[in-house]
Amino acid sequence: MSPTPAIEILRAPLLQPRPLRASRPRGGPAPGALARRSAPPALALSLLLSGCGAPEPPEVRVSGCPRCAGAAQVGALPRGDIDECSGVVAGGLHPDALYVHNDRGDDPRFFAIGLDGALRAEVKVAGAAAIDWEDIARGPCRTGGGSCLFLADIGDNDGERDSYAVYSVQEPDTLGGAPRPSTAEAFVLSYPDGRHDAETLLIHPTTGALTLVTKVNKGISRIYELPALPAPGAPATLVGAGSIEPPAGSARFTGGDVRPDGTGVLLRTSSHVLYYPMTPDQTVAQALAGSPCVLPSPDEEQAEAIAWVPGGWDYVTIGEGKEEPVHRVSCQAP
């Protein structure tokens, strides 16, 4: 293995986090606005933390990062059934399509939309429940090869669930026409240390290993992995694989995606977009142990979904709401 190249790092940058909105049931009342807080200057923050004995904030990578322009709106979600988009991933068989799904309260289904947000297909998922779907990812199917979509029923705002699930379905061969059915493989998951709320599912594009990042309102989130999917229906216990904390802004991780070539991971918080470089020999959790780049974060009312666009370094984001804009950030390779 060649030595790791040196990287230039900074402490928490002078970034202005946006106000956060708590997740809520579909159709429920909007929560009260949380107080807006501005990040203090890095030097003052460092002195403050060192004086009170608290750990320093995570480091920020400023070299080896994608070079990105600002976010641009390229479309919007269609009026109708997609009213709380909580996850997005780009197609493999259809690289000009995005797959999205609603948050809790909807039927077990997902939708295919164009890169401009136009509806292309609705897929009803048999053999699945929709308690609190929070993210969608794409990767190799459990039996090897093929392109499968993984739907993460991992939300637990109230900390009441004893188990969680990830559903795997084959990516549709064709799009368009009337709503179509698809039968899922169900993977029942639990944590080794109790209940957790999570909104981020990451699938390794080569090994198919599953990674979850928990969501907390403040402090440090946990990372859990499952190196190999079990037989459908067989309960599996996730393995703790470290912890993670954003370098600035909101602590709430709300989505993520692994590059199809395995060279990097995007994570989204309620206020920021973070990029973690990844090497072919790393697991996703090992990549997340490194220092992230801070990339442009579109201004969305409730930042939720994020995905790489195939064929380059661009990514798209969608907020959680009705007729939400589809934002695209154009980037060049590091």
Descriptive report:
The protein has helices spanning 42-52, 284-288, and strands at residues 9-10, 60-61, 67-76, 85-90, 97-102, 109-114, 119-126, 133-139, 148-153, 164-170, 180-183, 185-190, 198-203, 210-214, 221-226, 236-237, 239-244, 253-258, 264-269, 273-277, 293-295, 303-308, 315-319, 325-332. It is mainly beta and 334 residues long. The strands form six sheets. A five-stranded mixed sheet has the order 4-5-6-7-11, with no helix packed on it. Strand 5 (97-102) and strand 6 form a beta hairpin. The longest helix is centred in the first third of the chain and has 11 residues, at 42-52. The relative contact order is 0.18.
Number of strands: 24
Largest sheet: 5 strands, mixed
Instruction: Report the helical percentage.
Output: under 10%
Give the overall form.
globular
Poorly predicted tracts of residues: 1-54
Order of helices and strands: EHEEEEEEEEEEEEEEEEEEEHEEEE
Strand and helix map with partners:
Layout: E1 9-10, H1 42-52, E2 60-61, E3 67-76, E4 85-90, E5 97-102, E6 109-114, E7 119-126, E8 133-139, E9 148-153, E10 164-170, E11 180-183, E12 185-190, E13 198-203, E14 210-214, E15 221-226, E16 236-237, E17 239-244, E18 253-258, E19 264-269, E20 273-277, H2 284-288, E21 293-295, E22 303-308, E23 315-319, E24 325-332
Parallel strand pairs: 7-11, 12-16
Antiparallel strand pairs: 1-2, 3-24, 4-5, 5-6, 6-7, 8-9, 9-10, 10-12, 13-14, 14-15, 15-17, 18-19, 19-20, 20-21, 22-23, 23-24
